[in-house]
From TrEMBL:
Membrane topology of this protein: Multi-pass membrane protein
Species name: Sphingobium naphthae
Protein name (Swiss-Prot/TrEMBL): Cytochrome b
Protein family membership: Belongs to the cytochrome b561 family.
Pfam families for this protein: Ni_hydr_CYTB
The organism's taxonomic lineage, starting at the top: Bacteria, Pseudomonadati, Pseudomonadota, Alphaproteobacteria, Sphingomonadales
Length: 225
């Protein structure tokens, strides 16, 4: 059997239980953490006065943001290979459609934010080299031979895209998190459980049957008395 077939079979073992695969779960929570950090740090960066730490603050912002682009490529590939599970949220008509639309918006942001940030960084007289995760050298986009007016135009457009995606995320993330919590606490659906790492539930007899003393087993015909 091919490696891809074996991976798909392994992942189906999870998705057929209405759960995301451990790889899908890792992508989700690592990227959710990075994006939330970047939103906070990005606003902090724009408030820091020019000079002093400002360059370092933006270097951290770019170092933590570029991995989002690499992870987005991996996650999209994984999602194409391994479709998400069918869970209780998939039986809700228009709400399901909105949830799917939100997932597309998230993927657009996963690519659009680092790409526009990278374009901004590359269009101005480079304020310093770029590093993925702070230590892997990352190239500039090839804008340095372009006329200055074009570079200013790219800077302006990339800034608009970055801000538009930031504002979109600020609107959509609370809806996404609110919907996940509503499914879990209000509707008692399996949606959030399917996105959390699997922890064997000691209380759930289906997952971990308690040890009982064996029943006395004797055939009626051979039983004494
Ligand atoms: C991947 C997720 C990212 C998120 C969520 C994010 C978020 C933000 C936020 C909230 C701001 C402040 C608001 C604004 O001015 O738009 C900002 C500004 C900025 N970000 Fe990002 N960012 C990300 C990635 C990146 C990357 C990878 C780079 C560079 C390689 C970058 C470069 C910049 C720059 C240069 C600014 C200042 C823009 C300005 O002065 O108007 N960002 N970002
Ligand atoms: C912090 C609280 C969060 C919670 C409780 C949460 C919960 C969930 C749940 C339960 C699902 C499964 C939905 C379904 O199958 O219908 C999901 C999927 C998803 N979430 Fe979140 N999420 C959170 C944050 C985020 C953030 C910050 C982002 C991105 C900015 C995000 C992006 C996604 C995407 C793209 C999916 C689709 C699944 C995939 O393609 O891997 N989530 N989330």
């Amino acid at each position: 059997m091919s490696v891809v077939g074996a991976v798909q079979r392994w992942a189906r073992g999870h998705t057929e239980q209405s759960r995301y695969s451990p790889v899908g779960i890792a992508f989700h929570w690592i990227m959710a953490f990075l994006i939330l950090f970047q939103l906070g740090w990005g606003f902090y960066a724009s408030w820091v006065p020019a000079g002093g730490d400002k360059l370092w603050v933006y270097q951290v912002h770019s170092a933590a943001g570029l991995p989002v682009l690499v992870l987005a490529l991996g996650r999209l590939g994984w999602r194409i290979l391994i479709p998400g599970p069918i869970n209780d949220a998939d039986r809700q008509g228009w709400q399901t459609q909105i949830a799917y639309a939100m997932h597309y918006v998230f993927y657009a942001a996963f690519f659009g934010l680092p790409l526009s940030g990278w374009a901004m960084w590359s269009s101005i007289a480079a304020p310093g080299p770029l590093y993925l995760a702070g230590f892997i050298p990352w190239p500039q986009m090839p804008f340095d031979q372009m006329p200055l007016t074009l570079r200013w135009w790219i800077l302006d457009a990339a800034e608009d895209v970055h801000l538009l995606l930031v504002v979109t995320l600020l609107a959509v993330i609370p809806l996404h998190v609110g919907a996940a919590l509503k499914h879990h606490f209000w509707d008692r659906h399996d949606v959030l459980r399917g996105m959390l790492p699997e922890i064997p539930d000691m209380e759930d007899p289906r997952e971990d049957p308690p040890h009982r003393p064996p029943e006395p087993r004797s055939h009626p015909e051979t039983a004494p008395g």
